[in-house]
């Protein structure tokens, strides 16, 4: 879309959406793309097994990539500016060589160059967004590991205490010792339940972190 405004002399001045900073616009579009899909992707990374591939997700969401801004209008002036500023000019002539009019060739070449830049900047923006998740996940893993260490130490002490009570009970029958053993066994069961829950949480967060790092490595 090309916008027009009137200047103070009453003639028309063209306001171009890709000017003056083409890459600022592309990066804005790329961030919008990330925002559109981020939470869906994050859900997949949470629910998938270790080492989920971004290529798999990209293939399953091919329609999103193909349709995002696919109908964008580019003027000839914009096309020239895109081709001057872009670092990723489309190399495959088959994308535009069949267009007869040379102006339309330039516009078509610029369109596919824009899409090259858009996908590249999308991947960079997604990588940055995923990077933001990592410190909190690493902190959570460390927290779970500390909790596991504390509970394992507590379990060892409880097991030793039960053993001591059982040794005392073997020498003489004592109802209070039997009650204490029962209490400690209940405590031991509770520790095991806590350990199971924390290990599940640790596995979940570790899996998510691994998936994030795998996806980042493909971007």
In short:
Helices cover 74% and strands 4% of the residues. The protein is mainly alpha-helical and 219 residues long. Strand 1 (3-6) and strand 2 form a beta hairpin.
SSE diagram, text form:
Layout: E1 3-6, E2 12-15, H1 22-47, H2 54-60, H3 62-67, H4 76-85, H5 102-171, H6 175-218
Antiparallel strand pairs: 1-2
Structure description:
This protein has about 220 residues and is mostly helical. It has one domain. Helix content is about 75%, strand content about 5%. The chain is built from six helices and two strands; from the N terminus they run ββαααααα. It has helices at about 20-45, 55-60, 60-65, 75-85, 100-170, 175-219, and strands at about 5, 10-15. Strands 1-2 form a two-stranded antiparallel ribbon. Helix 1 runs parallel beside helix 5 (about 100-170), helix 4 (about 75-85) packs across helix 5 (about 100-170) and helix 5 (about 100-170) packs antiparallel against helix 6 (about 175-219). The longest helix has about 70 residues, at about 100-170. It is rod-shaped. Residues about 1-15 have low confidence and may be disordered.
